[in-house]
């Protein structure tokens, strides 16, 4: 449906048919500057598109906005304004508003020019976008799915973002992540405890001698924060607040630097509290009994000698009977002019 806007720019569209829209990330200033979004296909596999639009110096004074749609929330309408951009001598999208079955997000940009509005989708949902873009978003259109897929058929894992520029090669995981174990940022490593999970990332995106890159990153868990890593400066961004979920992986556009970064989110699954009577950072001493269960132990001589008072069947984790928990990495934060490398470990590799 659409597009609405001008005739300039290059056509940008997705290659895999969308079934469910998961998140929208836009960058706006006086106009709509750039857009990215994530969606799931008919198999429940998450995909992302963009960022499409402006980059570099045109983004000075702009801001990021990310909309993470809830499990029962879906987009039913977009609206906005179109006006002539004097610098580029063409009509562009100056503002946009997103309407879901639960809320209204926006307007983003400046309400100047002629209004437009998509038809209200009453028996389905908007599941993706296509645009014409170069320096700005010249025009935008939507993909509509007439009937919304039942929630039980949708994947729990979604992709959000990315935030940053559009240069660099795409790096993504080849197996859907389930739990984030550690994060390596250039020379520093963050090892998450068994009861610790990542809730948020934030940072800055700024101009460089080349197009925009990620200048700094901060990682926030349910226990504490790590960073910021990098020199800072530029436009700030922040991943959406997660009330009952966690960030379980990353994808990025990167070359010599990290141009843009996005996250995999387990947004539906509620976090189960797993406490062992201490926080791993404060006391790494851990006892593991023959059933594979963990227990705080102050006497090293009894690290594997305790037993449950109530008998139970032996667990498949018996092989972990004498495992020891590695001491968590200290915050050996080394700052750089920009974020040079980001990695995550959960049991699979990256592929370009």
Automatic annotation (TrEMBL):
Gene Ontology molecular function terms on file: carbohydrate binding
CDD domains assigned: Jacalin
Jacalin-type lectin domain residues: 1-146, 157-267
InterPro entries: Jacalin-like_lectin_dom, Jacalin-like_lectin_dom_plant, Jacalin-like_lectin_dom_sf
Record bears the keyword Membrane: no
Top-level lineage group: Eukaryota
Gene3D superfamilies per record: Jacalin-like lectin domain
Keyword DNA-binding: no
Entry keyword set: Lectin
The protein's name in its UniProt record: Jacalin-type lectin domain-containing protein
Taxonomic placement: Eukaryota, Viridiplantae, Streptophyta, Embryophyta, Tracheophyta
């Amino acid at each position: 449906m659409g597009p609405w806007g001008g005739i300039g720019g290059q056509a940008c569209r997705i290659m895999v048919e969308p079934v469910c829209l998961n998140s929208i990330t836009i960058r706006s200033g006086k106009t709509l500057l750039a857009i990215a979004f994530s969606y799931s296909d008919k198999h429940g596999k998450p995909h992302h598109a963009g960022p499409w639009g402006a980059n570099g110096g045109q983004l000075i004074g702009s801001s990021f906005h990310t909309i993470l749609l809830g499990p029962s929330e879906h987009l039913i309408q977009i609206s906005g304004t179109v006006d002539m951009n004097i610098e580029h001598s063409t009509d562009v999208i100056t503002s946009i508003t997103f309407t879901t079955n639960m809320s209204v997000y926006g307007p983003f940009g400046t309400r100047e020019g002629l209004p437009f509005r998509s038809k209200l989708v009453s028996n389905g949902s908007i599941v993706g976008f296509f645009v014409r873009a170069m320096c700005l978003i010249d025009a935008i259109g939507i993909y509509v799915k007439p009937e919304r897929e039942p929630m039980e058929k949708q994947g729990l894992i979604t992709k959000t973002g990315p935030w940053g520029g559009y240069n660099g090669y795409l790096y993504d995981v080849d197996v859907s992540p389930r739990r984030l174990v550690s994060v390596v940022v250039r020379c520093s490593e963050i090892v998450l405890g068994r009861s610790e999970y990542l809730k948020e990332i934030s940072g800055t995106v700024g101009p460089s001698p080349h197009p925009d890159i990620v200048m700094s990153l901060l990682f926030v868990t349910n226990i504490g924060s790590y960073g910021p890593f990098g020199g800072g400066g530029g436009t700030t961004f922040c991943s959406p607040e997660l009330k009952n979920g966690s960030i379980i992986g990353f994808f990025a556009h990167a070359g010599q630097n990290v141009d843009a970064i996005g996250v995999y989110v387990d947004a539906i699954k509620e976090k189960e509290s797993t406490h062992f009577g201490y926080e791993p950072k404060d006391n790494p001493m851990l006892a593991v009994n023959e059933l594979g269960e963990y227990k705080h132990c102050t006497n090293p001589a009894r690290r594997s000698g305790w037993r449950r008072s109530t008998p139970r069947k032996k667990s498949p984790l018996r092989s972990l009977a004498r495992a020891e928990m590695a001491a968590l990495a200290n915050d050996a934060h080394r700052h750089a002019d920009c974020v040079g490398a980001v990695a995550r470990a959960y049991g699979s590799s990256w592929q370009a």
